[in-house]
Amino acid sequence: MTAEARQIQQTCQVIGAILALGLFTTGAVAQQGATGKSFVENFDTIDRSLWFVSDGWNNGKHQNCTWSKDQVKAEGGELKLTFEQSKTKDRDYACGEIQTRARFGYGTYEVRMKSATGSGLNSAFFTYIGPTDKQPHDEIDFEVLGKNTGEVQVNQYVGAKGGNEKLVPVAGGADQGFNDYAFVWEENRLRYFVNGKLVQDVTDKTKIPSNAQKIFLSLWGTDTLKNWMGSFAYSQPAIMTIDRIAFTALGEDCKFPESVLCTLD
Question: Exposure check for the chain: N or C terminus, fewer CB within 10 A?
Answer without folding.
Answer: C
